[in-house]
Sequence to fold (194 residues):
Amino acid sequence: MVYPIVAYGDPVLRARAANIPADFADLDKLIADMFETMAHAHGVGLAAPQINKSIRLFVVDSTPMVSDPNEENPRFRQPALRRAFINPVMVEETGAAWGFDEGCLSIPGIHEQVQRPERVRLRYEDEQRQVREEEFDGIAARIIQHEYDHLEGVLFTDHLNALKKRLLKNRLTRISKGEVDADYRMRFAGGGRR
Fold:
């Protein structure tokens, strides 16, 4: 099932997501639906709040960003990561900050340079609900940090300086009102859909 993506301005994107209990029904189906929704929207990551579910779950598929073995930037020369992260906890962010133009399925048409640390250590449950702790770097770390932010109620635009935020204010307001061009279904604050 392909879910509509929640657009900027919906309060679910600003709430800290709740942990997923052990007896959560149909988690496997939800994860499969999230991968399908992400692929349909041509994304590399999707957090549950972006489909109007305020729970601590996100999925990642970095394949489109690491598929070129001749890539000069070592941050992109790594195996593709395709995984679901349940109840993640950011243990540590380390390394030099590096900039990259980030975008977000909930904020279509806007891409801005965001600085993030090079490596992360994350504790999470895998799809079998086994606890794992793992370190990620390069583009995988960046995608994880972006999606983890969603679970904390943080958007990539929150990382921008005050001037950039002012310059984007009108565009963000238009997105929240449904004045947006996206090639996937969206859900807007107040329940509107397009």
